Amino acid sequence: MTTDEFFRPKARAPRGFVDRRAPALVAERKILDAVAAVYESFGFERLETGAFEYADALGKFLPDADRPNDGVFALQDDDEQWIALRYDLTAPLARFAAEHWDILAKPFRRYAFGPVWRNEKPGPGRYREFMQCDADTVGSERPEADAEIIAMAVQGYAAAGLPAGACTLKINNRKLLDGLLVAAGVVDSRQKLAVLRAVDKLDRLGLEGVTYLLGAGRKDESGAFTKGAELAAPAIQSVLAYLGAGGGGRQATLDRLAGVVGGSVEGDEGLAELDKIGEALTRLGVHEGQAMFEPSVVRGLEYYTGAVFEAEINLKTGEGGGFGAIGGGGRYDDLVARFTGQRTPATGFSFGVSRLAAALAASGAAAKSARGPVVVLALDNAQMGEYFAMASELRAAGIAAEVYLGTSGMRPQMKYADRRGAPAAVIVGGDELAAGTVTIKDLDLGRQLAAGVGDNRAWREDRPGQITAPRADFVAAVRRIVESGPNET
Amino acid sequence: MTTDEFFRPKARAPRGFVDRRAPALVAERKILDAVAAVYESFGFERLETGAFEYADALGKFLPDADRPNDGVFALQDDDEQWIALRYDLTAPLARFAAEHWDILAKPFRRYAFGPVWRNEKPGPGRYREFMQCDADTVGSERPEADAEIIAMAVQGYAAAGLPAGACTLKINNRKLLDGLLVAAGVVDSRQKLAVLRAVDKLDRLGLEGVTYLLGAGRKDESGAFTKGAELAAPAIQSVLAYLGAGGGGRQATLDRLAGVVGGSVEGDEGLAELDKIGEALTRLGVHEGQAMFEPSVVRGLEYYTGAVFEAEINLKTGEGGGFGAIGGGGRYDDLVARFTGQRTPATGFSFGVSRLAAALAASGAAAKSARGPVVVLALDNAQMGEYFAMASELRAAGIAAEVYLGTSGMRPQMKYADRRGAPAAVIVGGDELAAGTVTIKDLDLGRQLAAGVGDNRAWREDRPGQITAPRADFVAAVRRIVESGPNET
Question: I want to staple B252 with a disulfide (CB 3.0 to 4.6 A). Which of A168, A347, B248, B303 is the partner?
Fold first, then answer.
């Protein structure tokens, strides 16, 4: 501490890291608790791994490099090994499953939530630390394992508070895309990539733009030209038929897709898997509006090996458009193999917790932000014990309460109570002491009047801004004010 | 992924980091939820800061060094500034309070929980990442702020499940020790240190050993000699009177202490503060057995500036001795000053979450470890939809349930259900399908029989190991088994 006299650091958080206070934390906790309860009802077990993994176990340290990728926060341990903060929850799961495979009851279902860290350029709304919430099943190749994950996502969003119909799970299978490429006669890998890229632009460019990109190419508004996949007309028709196969229920989609990709090994495998997923979803009570087959989903195809899922929010414009996907997942088979050499089937889903919180807020379904405690003013130093006893009585009655602990006068104390979001202030000064009474100020009402809500006169008649109660009855009087809430008369 | 063919990392967690599974996580979550509810009832607001702080803001980067202390996990950001993972929750609070002081309602009460990281040598039970759970009040110099923190700790331990009487808060004030040194005529700083060190050994050496250390010195069993503080006899008597002043209630302790340290400025200040703390505790309903004044507590005196608290567990030997302190705190005034230059009074308490969890387990008061889900066996691939529907019906009735998703036969599936801790296995094979029934195996009973609990014959008469129910009634039949629980007949 000797340097303190010479050196004063500036108080600031590192770039890309954020301080979060009660309203954000209450909303997040509500989501995580609700989703965890759904996961546990499906038999998923919570797992928590450490923040660090060896960089090689994360796949972020290639053997010919002298340090891990820039994308992770890495440092060298005192035994010279590189360790890095996890950048997702899947890589630690793969390490855990590979390490303990022999002792795990298999298939192994686990869920996890916790922060992950990305060493990327921060920007507005782009943090270098954020919450993830994942469920994965390792060791089952059954398509029903995918269906279960999808059903949990559907139930999880509902449990978190999204209104019915606000969210749809879109399901695809990369084997269908492989079957499509076979059906369209695309064998060249460069051409394959061009087709997938064109398909991925459907949302942005529409069918017409995609058609150009599948053919000779497309010129955008600025005049810039993007070379196309140069497919022949029948192949383009196959791709367009594939992209148009969604809608009208899961079975109808499968029937249409069978006409496009059926016949190839890949296509038939993909169709059979989706068929089983569809049946299991139906038996799990997941209806068509909650989870649909959508062949245009091409999310993470370099990563997923079978089924792919994406959760999309359907809020009307102004209600929260622009959230994009609020979660996603799919089947991946190679992650554990990185350690063991054994291909291990796995499937999982990741909730986008902060996007979901934003969507809940926009849809009006967010948890009411936490109200402050009742504040007992400290007006007479000789009465501090009495003030503490009163706060204690309020808490015993289930009402959060605190005594003001500064040394300022009445006005700053009232301002403090207001800034704390207190529903009421409890006042015992000389007059009250002499009379054996307590004055209770209704601060919710004060805030509403200040905000110009309602007709002041009417308010005052049936809900005075301040009441006086006998000391013996003050808890009941505070309760009446607290329970009347900020939005009722 | 091209390197995967050549390089297989070993699956292992970094040294000092631990994977935690459901039982440990359930116990921790119960503690944190209970303590958070108590904190919020006292008006404390949750705050979560990022995992990283600038190393200078942590006080872990002295300006004349070229990198931060070894004790933290630190790395250089791409703008060359050193950032480090927080090693406690107090330093980030100080940074946050200093950064946002102008906009905070003051005094500022906050609680926080989350992992902290220490870059130390790991060992058995010594991790480099662990959970902390803190409450602090910043900006109040009132001793009542200390009392409130103590009352929350008392209520927090009870809410977390510690039985009544299992935990005592011991309270001291470093000003009393300063007053004692004045009373004993100790002015030399080397001699002061020797006295404090001697007092700190009371638990280990007893009064006789401390007496030697206050005087000429002490020879231990091995013959090694420790030089003493070389106090004169009357000064030694003062220290011994001080150390013996505890017990018999808070007021009695204060009265005895007044006779030893009263009269000096420091001693009188300390006595007055403890007097106010004692009165507030009484009004908060904290009785003498829950929080006592104990002058021998010398915890963290280089850090705390006034009141000091320590939570000690009182379990009989064999019930969990050796836990030592399961939490502690005190008043500190200089932490925010490091940034602002302004002395800011603060007081706080930190729960030792993992020690508390261990104490709860030892006292038999730990949360029952999470039971596994009911497992519906997958015996017939054509019936997967039916199995999913049955699991869904169980969940709708509030019973956690899963379908076995592997491809093994009946015996491995039963073994799986047992390893999952399932209370029951639900069996629908050919016979049941033909008869429209469901067989339910009571796995709790099976485990108890295997463990030799009770008389096998008696068990079997009133609780058969397996029952058959009509398909339409199977949920009720499963519920009867699940609710009968693992410990009842």
Answer: B248
* Interatomic CA distance for residues B236 and B281, integer angstroms: 32
Taking phi over 0 as left and psi of -120 to 50 as alpha, with beta for the rest, A341 belongs to left
Quick: pLDDT tens for A235-253.
999 999 999 999 889 999 9
Contact list in B for residue A276 (CB cut-off 8 A) is 384
Cα of B75 vs its chain's centroid, Å = 29
Per-position DSSP letters for A431-475, written without gaps between them = HHHHHTEEEEEEHHHHHHHHTT-S-HHHHHHHS-SEEEEEGGGHH
Six-digit token string for B361: 């387990």
Give me the half-sphere count of Cα atoms (radius 13 Å) on the Cβ side of residue B28: 20
How far does A472 lie from chain B, in Å, by closest CA?
16
Q: Which CATH architecture has domain A374-484?
A: 3-Layer(aba) Sandwich (3.40)
> Rounded CA gap, B236 and B230, in Å?
9
> What's the half-sphere exposure (Cβ side, CA atoms, 13 Å) at B149?
36
- Dihedral Cα B113, B115, B118, B120, nearest 10 deg: 130
Closest of A149, A201, A104 to residue A306, by C-alpha: A149
What pLDDT, in 10s, does the model give residues B97-151?
Answer: 999 999 999 999 999 999 999 999 998 888 999 999 999 999 999 999 999 999 9
Q: What is the pTM of this model?
A: 0.90
Fold held by A167-313 = BirA Bifunctional Protein; domain 2 (3.30.930)
- The chain A residue lying nearest B399, using CA atoms, is A41
In terms of CATH, what superfamily is B22-362? Bira Bifunctional Protein; Domain 2 (3.30.930.10)
Residue given tokens 């298939």 in the structure block: A107
* Side chain identity at residue B290, one-letter code: Q
Residues of B in contact with A338 (CB under 8 A): 4, 8-9
Mean pLDDT calculated for residue range B269-285 = 97
Question: For chain B, which residues make up each domain, given as ranges?
Answer: 22-362, 374-484
A372 contact residues in B (CB cutoff 8 A)? 43
On the CB side of B386, CA atoms within 13 Å amount to 18
Q: With left for phi above 0 and alpha for psi between -120 and 50, is residue A313 left, alpha or beta?
A: beta
A295 CB contacts (<8 Å, ≥6 apart)? A172, A176, A177, A242, A243, A245, A246, A253, A257
* The two structure tokens encoding residue B74: 């630190």
Tell me if residue A428 falls in helix, strand or coil.
Answer: coil
Is A374-484 in the same CATH topology as A167-313? no
**Contact between chains at A21 and B47 (C-beta distance less than 8 A):** yes
Predicted ipTM of the assembly? 0.89
Find out whether B379 and B410 touch, Cβ atoms under 8 Å: yes
Q: What is the dihedral of CA A68, A73, A78, A82, to 10 degrees?
A: -20
Neighbours of A244 (CB within 10 A): 13
**Residues B9, A57: C-beta atoms closer than 8 Å:** yes
Reference B359, options B321, B387, B403, B305; nearest CA is B321
Gap between the Cα atoms of A67 and A42, Å rounded:
41
* Three-class SS state of B170: strand
Pairing of strands A82-85, A52-54: antiparallel
